[in-house]
Amino acid sequence: MKDLILRVNTLTEALPYIKEFYGKTLVIKYGGAAQTLESLKHLFAKDIVLLRYVGMRPVVVHGGGPEITRIMEKMGKTSEFIGGKRVTDDETMDIVEMVLSGKINKEIVALINHHGGQAVGLSGTDGTMIEAKKLHEDMGLVGEVQAINPQVIRTLDEAGFIPVIAPVGIGEDSKKYNINADTSAAAIAVALKADKFIFLTDTPGILRDPEDADSLISTIHIDEIDGLIKDGVVGGGMIPKLIAAREAVIAGVSKVHIIDGRLPHALLLELFTDAGIGTEVVA
């Protein structure tokens, strides 16, 4: 009986959040362990299906760096990085598109559909969704977001489908570009006027001391971000996430959340509980 009461209490706690976010758009950057561990893949898919069934509008944007590196090594090709971005020649771009659009995207779509959702896989080239331009001549086909055309996403969303997006952009030169998934997700969140933008990562959130999980910073205001980077509190791959979070908030996204995708049902814990998890970035 205690277990049953606990379940009912959990549902009761979730009710105000279900009401608050009903009909709202949530953009989720899907990465880290949540994207690579088999057990977490299924839980993530179930969470996305649940969000849609209770009236929310999830949009998934995924990366795939480790898998791209693995396939490149298998093909005898070495990865080169400048400033954390993969130098992308024509052959590497073919591999990037094959892995992101052809493999990972379809796997995510299949899992969501397996668990009762209606997901549709997209590349940023579909409907010229992600317009890109070359970032730097030395980087090859690495691009940055020039504009987002969200009509395809909105059309699918209004028809009840869950868009799953691979961050490949298209340039005015008709070339395809390798775009950072964090940056793409932030730009999509802004274009959709998302109520929430959520990063699934391999950390509990932003920690003042990387060795101390109890040093989690629950809330960061956007004017604190430069100081956290300068003081070395934030480094590595978390820097582009925080910068993308700041740009999204400045452009009108209500809140950005950086949460631990290694936790089972991390999305539900963040959205449907009073305590929440991870770090929120606010104006």
Provide a descriptive summary of the structure in words.
- With 283 residues, the protein is an alpha/beta fold.
- It has helices at 2-21, 33-36, 38-53, 65-74, 90-114, 151-158, 181-191, 225-230, 238-250, 266-272, and strands at residues 25-30, 57-62, 81-82, 85-86, 119-123, 130-134, 142-148, 162-166, 168-171, 176-179, 196-201, 219-221, 255-260, 279-282.
- The strands form three sheets. Strands 5-8-2-1-11-13-14-12 form an eight-stranded mixed beta sheet, with helices on both faces.
- Strand 9 (168-171) and strand 10 form a beta hairpin.
- Helix 4 (65-74) packs across helix 5 (90-114).
Features:
283 residues, alpha/beta, Carbamate kinase, eight-stranded mixed β-sheet, four-stranded mixed β-barrel, 10 helices, globular
